[in-house]
Specification:
The protein is of the alpha+beta class and 358 residues long. The protein contains 10 helices and 26 strands.
């Protein structure tokens, strides 16, 4: 269907948005219900109507629903004007539950535009300028379309896009989704790799520097719009013993760490590698790996300096996130200054175009 979407023109703008499958959970037991009225549960052989919550469990022979074994995949459809609920969280569309790798996977099959209703508020503040909200809607839509284009899965995990269903929806965010309906970023006719992050700290880095993949529109550049956010500058003190323990747990053979020195930076000033010197030797670790070990919400970015302070290491850093693509706080500042959605996206993804695909 996506191939045909890219061939559409304005005369086809009435066509419906595609449905997407979003993995929202996995586990062994789930509570299923609906917000009002009845809901149907189907498998390949049967269909039943339920009015009350049911407990669904993994079973070696199928899916256990209130003690009865169903097939390995079931579909849950709500009544009109109702939503499915999974563990008391409401979702538009339908729910598919299937067995996979010894667990149950819960999939929300939902219209792409309605999916975005449950994304925007979790990614940025709905109180930000409307131009910024529209920019976020376009990059979030593009991100989902690109994953569909490449047959990649979509989940609600942070490394994809946060998605919270109905409870995460917001009226202003929904307006931004509706205004930009069907619009995505393209580069040479294909969905752009519209990655984004919280704050660049004043300098965008490139996809090549971070992931080794070179996209002309994901390049190193100064970002003056991200210099005054709450995350533009930060400090972090890490006890040497704590760092040693975390490195050991990650397989590094370190003991009695003496110093931590940045040995290589990328063109944006972000740390690429560090030398960890110990009493018994030394090792090299990448800035990305160190951030992963300490936690991405603890060591907020790799745009940092590090100092030796007795029994601690002091990190003085800027920004939050990988630093590639749109800085959300930078986009907020651009919106406050009166920049349009098109100007925001042109700044962070130079050379791309906004295209309406349905």
């Amino acid at each position: 269907m996506l191939l045909s979407l890219f061939q559409l023109n304005k005369a086809h703008a009435y066509l419906p948005a595609p449905a997407i499958n979003v993995k929202i959970a996995e586990g062994n037991t789930f509570l299923i219900s609906a917000t009002r009225g009845f809901y149907k549960i189907k498998d390949q052989k049967k269909e039943e109507i339920f009015y009350h919550p049911v407990k669904i469990k993994f079973s070696p022979t199928g899916i256990d629903i209130n003690g009865k074994i169903w097939d390995k995949e079931i579909k849950i459809e709500p009544d009109d004007n109702s939503f499915c609920e999974v563990n008391q969280k409401s979702y538009r569309g339908i729910i598919i539950i299937k067995k996979a790798k010894g667990k149950l996977e819960v999939i929300n099959k939902v219209n792409l535009e309605e999916y975005l209703y449950g994304v925007i508020k979790l990614e940025i503040s709905p109180e930000w300028p409307l131009a910024t909200l529209c920019a976020q809607a376009i990059v979030a839509r593009t991100y989902a379309v690109r994953r569909l284009w490449n047959n990649f899965p979509i989940t609600n995990l942070p490394q994809h896009q946060a998605y919270g269903g109905v409870k995460a929806e917001d009226a202003r965010a929904a307006i931004a989704v509706d205004i930009t309906r069907g619009e995505i970023l393209t580069y040479h006719g294909q969905p752009a790799n519209s990655v984004y992050h919280a704050c660049s700290g004043g300098y965008i880095t490139s996809s090549k520097e971070v992931w080794g993949e070179d996209y002309p529109y994901l390049r190193v550049q100064k970002d003056p719009f991200s210099l005054n956010s709450p995350y533009s500058r930060w400090k972090l003190r890490v006890p040497k013993k704590e760092l040693e323990k975390k490195l050991q747990q990650s397989g590094f053979k370190v003991r009695q760490i003496k110093s931590l020195v940045i040995t290589e930076k990328d063109l944006s000033g972000r740390c690429k590698t560090l030398l960890v010197s110990c009493k018994s030797g030394s090792c090299i670790i990448s800035g990305r790996k160190l951030r992963e070990i300490l936690g991405p919400d603890v060591l907020r970015s790799t745009l940092f300096k590090v100092k030796n302070e007795g029994s601690f290491f002091l990190f003085e850093g800027r920004g939050w996130g990988h630093g590639v693509g749109m800085s959300q706080w930078g986009a907020a500042r651009m919106g406050e200054l009166g920049y349009t959605t098109e100007q925001i996206l042109s700044f962070y993804y130079p050379g791309t175009e906004i295209k309406k695909i349905y």
